[in-house]
Amino acid sequence: MRRLRACLGAAAAVGLAAAGTTALVAGSASGATSALGNRWYAAAPYLMPLDNDPPDPAAIMDATGLKAFQLAFVLAPNGGGCSPTWGGTAAVSSDTAVQSVVNTIRAKGGDVSVSIGGYGGTKLGQVCSDAAATAAAYQQVITKYGLHAIDFDLEEPEYENTAAIKNEIGAAKILQQNNPGLYVSVTTAGTADGTGWFGKQMLLEAKSQGFTPNNFSIMPFDGGFNGAASQTGALTNFNQILQSTFGWDQATAYAHEGFSGMNGRSDTGEFFTQTDFQTVLDYATGHNMDRFTFWSLNRDRQCTPADNGGRTSGTCSSVAQNSWDFAKYSVKFAGATPPSSTPTPTPTPTPPGTGCKPAWSSTAVYTTGNEVSYNNHNWKAKWWTQNETPVASDWGVWQDEGAC
Question: Do the bridges between strand 377-381 and strand 398-403 make them parallel or antiparallel, or are there none, so unpaired?
Fold first, then answer.
């Protein structure tokens, strides 16, 4: 679950593989004219436009070729009521700040989706009287920003509330019917088995209401995950859950399945690097999955050296990277090619005679004094360890012995 999202801080030309392109015309003051291809909404990474040191979306678009952003999060007002706000505090009806972000993105040929819910805060499904009232609140958001896509991010504590989930799924179905061509994703927690009991109950609610979104996405992080293999395993298991719940064959289930990852260090200290993202991207495209996204663009930049790897931040990844490295995987999923002009980090010079130790393995057991290499550095174990990625930390198990 994306804890940091709610609690930390309340254009190069590209070729599209526009699978399922929809020409939905927006008739609002948002300045939107037509939708992007659905594949872009499926690839849109999350961006908090008002919190967590928001980056400049125009700069990200120029550096990566990204065209779509998933803006987060719409919640019920902190003081109560069934009306949409940004983060529980800024009313959508009177918003100008997020609208300015939307206008900037659209002026450069891009577009946005809006995500409702997330981890923490009060969700509209919890306080609105029924599905129709919940849908009416979300329709205000769609109309305000001329949206072509929306994401229902159903997490704690809402997805443990049967009535709230019934309202959310019912609202999603109403919006889908009343806004032809609207791209709808439903995002929920991931487990090693695919998703947990509450996630399965949400799927059963969708089945009972006859609602089929463009995709159901899971978030395989913050649940004992570490690296791509654990994530692709969860996606395989979730595919089987979709098959058994809806009676789909494997290919149909993958066509309605999505991945929502977390770049860098997760809330629980898991690590997901650029290599992990590439592996999951290959899995998603190889299985014709419908969605590949991540939390978040606010975190898609390197931390200061003092913080790198030692903590989880809402404003940086805690792994070595160039700014917007992870956004480029979203661009690839959309079927475009990121610009190649972004420089790669300058490698640290290797002192003569300093060779690399055997490569670190997530499955091997290491004891005090064992040495490995990882990310072009040698590391020495301080004590017994298994499946703990070597990172520089005063409290971690690994001691950095320098570049190799």
Answer: antiparallel
Token output for 352: 């003569």
What are 172's two structure tokens?
């999603």
State the DSSP H helix or E strand holding residue 372, giving kind and residue range, or none if neither. strand 371-374
Residues recognised as catalytic: 155
Is the full-model pTM beyond 0.90? no
Per-residue pLDDT of the chain (404 residues; tens, 9 = 90+): 554 544 443 322 223 333 333 334 333 444 455 689 999 999 999 999 999 999 999 999 999 999 999 999 999 999 999 999 999 999 999 999 999 999 999 999 999 999 999 998 999 999 999 999 999 999 999 999 999 999 999 998 999 999 999 999 999 999 999 999 999 999 999 999 999 999 999 999 999 999 999 999 999 999 999 999 999 999 999 999 999 999 999 999 999 999 999 999 999 999 999 999 999 999 999 999 999 999 999 999 999 875 666 789 999 999 999 999 999 999 999 999 999 854 444 333 334 335 788 887 887 877 777 888 888 788 788 767 778 888 876 567 777 777 77
Cis geometry, peptide bond prior to residue 73 (ω within 30 degrees of 0): yes
CB 291 within 8 A of CB 266: no
